[in-house]
Amino acid sequence: MVLWGPVLGALLVVIVGYLCLLGLLRQRRPQEPPLDKGSVPWLGHAMAFRKNMPEFLKHMRAKHGDVFTVQLGGQYFTFVMDPLSFGPILKDVKRKLDFVEYAEKLVLKVFGYQSIPGDHRMIHSASTKHLMGNGLEDLNKTMRDCLSLVILGPAGPSPDASSWREDGLFHFCYNILFKAGYLSLFGYTKDTEQDLLQAEELFTQFRKFDRLFPRFVYSLLGPREWLEVGRLQRLFHKTLSVKENLEKDGVSNWIAYMLQFLREQGVAPAMQDKFNFMMLWASQGNTGPTSFWALLFLLKHPEAMQALREEAARVLGEAGQSFDFDVSALQRTPVLDSVMEETLRLGAAPTLLRVVHDDHVLTMASGEEYRLRSGDIVALFPYLSVHMDPDIHPEPTAFKYDRFLNPDGSRKVDFYKAGKKIHHYTMPWGSGVSMCPGRFLALSEMKLFVLLMITHFDLELVDPDTPVPPVDPQRWGFGTTQPSHDVRFRYRLRSPE
């Protein structure tokens, strides 16, 4: 009889030893960035990185300069912290730095979706066709109507709608934006009340997945949490299945276009279901949290709220007294645009990643050259290196609603670092091939929501002196940050004047 316990134990020792040996054997080669493997074999700096990503990167930059390579869980990441040197990475005309490979592995792990050749380009093509111009205006109208439905209910304002109601601001914003976005994109039935109930339940499950998401990506879940993730994935695959969608009206042209492409490529319906889950996450995972930060900043800065309400009154006129206003007004709101851009500067903290194919030489803005090793990952963290740079944005931690406005009220686009004009002065949507294809829709959703809330509701914090909550440390690097705790607020429907 084979004693499997000792055999498996010996095998585990060999595997762990091999992984540790790989980390121990790696040495810095000539012209490579400074290498910092950390004190723990294989894990490297993974724990410090996860605990507080911005502080870890600040420490590494102070220790090594603007370019350094660190070991994180067996993988080597080269961080480039000088925004003037981002250009060659984001443009990458030689195609040596690959975003698609990393993205395909991530969506397979998180959503179960197996990418096919060309679908990355297809998503961008669909977004250009249906999330810009007339396509976007049509979707904005749908979104406006769905926001009205979710906020006011199927029967319109209730008799007590003008009475104060209390809620958590983060929960309120995320809940409203998710439900309206879900109905706008994935359609509805003739039973409106049932649609709203289903959207509410789906949001509850979405938040469960959302809370597990950061540790899921890093494979840090416990056994029960892995089971829960599997359950949630199956639930979303079923709820968002193409079979379910056939029974709905109003499925957006954007979603329909992409599903048609997958059908024409022979993708099985079960994989199309997983694609829908991925697109729900991509479209709704950040709009609610961003809107929370926007409304919180407005509530903490009365001068910003006043300026925005005055702009809304000018742009919307009498139509602003109705939820059914002309969505083309979104193109004439420079103050709101600045508020949203400032909110994203403070609240969006994505990590931009590229896999290095073949050894590659990176030339910095200073002229210095670094050799990047094949198989490593190049990483940019714009929140720290751009958004929080006091040279680019004076008083970077302060919310200034007019930071992106010129004195004449036009949009400000001229920002400088070290006396040089900088192209990437904010990067909440990524850049280059990883630029978010749905950014115009996401921004329109948030602008519609903020406009409706400030024009139709009285809003106030339960405790006016409550500080802006710190960021949940788990959310660094994953799109828009989330607060470590919610903030209580009150709202009531304004009476028509």
Describe this structure in words.
With 497 residues, the protein is an alpha+beta fold. It has a domain at 119-351 and 382-493: Cytochrome P450 (Cytochrome p450), CATH 1.10.630.10. It is 50% helix and 11% strand. It has 18 helices and 15 strands. It has helices spanning 4-25, 46-51, 53-64, 87-91, 100-111, 119-130, 133-152, 169-186, 192-217, 223-239, 242-245, 253-264, 269-284, 287-300, 302-316, 334-347, 382-387, 439-456; strands at 35-36, 67-72, 75-80, 97-98, 165-168, 187-188, 249-251, 352-356, 360-363, 369-372, 377-380, 416-417, 420-421, 457-461, 488-493. It has a six-stranded mixed β-sheet. The radius of gyration is 24 Å and the shape is globular. The termini are far apart. Mean pLDDT is 91; it is low at 1-22.
Instruction: Estimate the helix proportion, in percent.
Output: 40-55%
| Strand ordering within the main sheet | 1-2-3-11-8-4
Under CATH, the homologous superfamily of the domain at 119-351 and 382-493 reads Cytochrome P450
Strand content: 5-15%
Say what the CATH topology of the domain at 119-351 and 382-493 is: Cytochrome p450
Q: What's the N-to-C terminus distance?
A: 87 Å
Overall radius of gyration:
24 Å
- Morphology: globular
Spans with pLDDT under 50 lasting ≥5 residues?
Answer: 1-22
CATH A-level architecture of the domain at 119-351 and 382-493: Orthogonal Bundle
Number of DSSP helices? 18
Number of strands: 15
Task: Name the structural class.
Answer: alpha+beta
| Major β-sheet annotation | 6 strands, mixed
Instruction: Provide the CATH top-level class of the domain at 119-351 and 382-493.
Output: Mainly Alpha
Mean pLDDT: 91
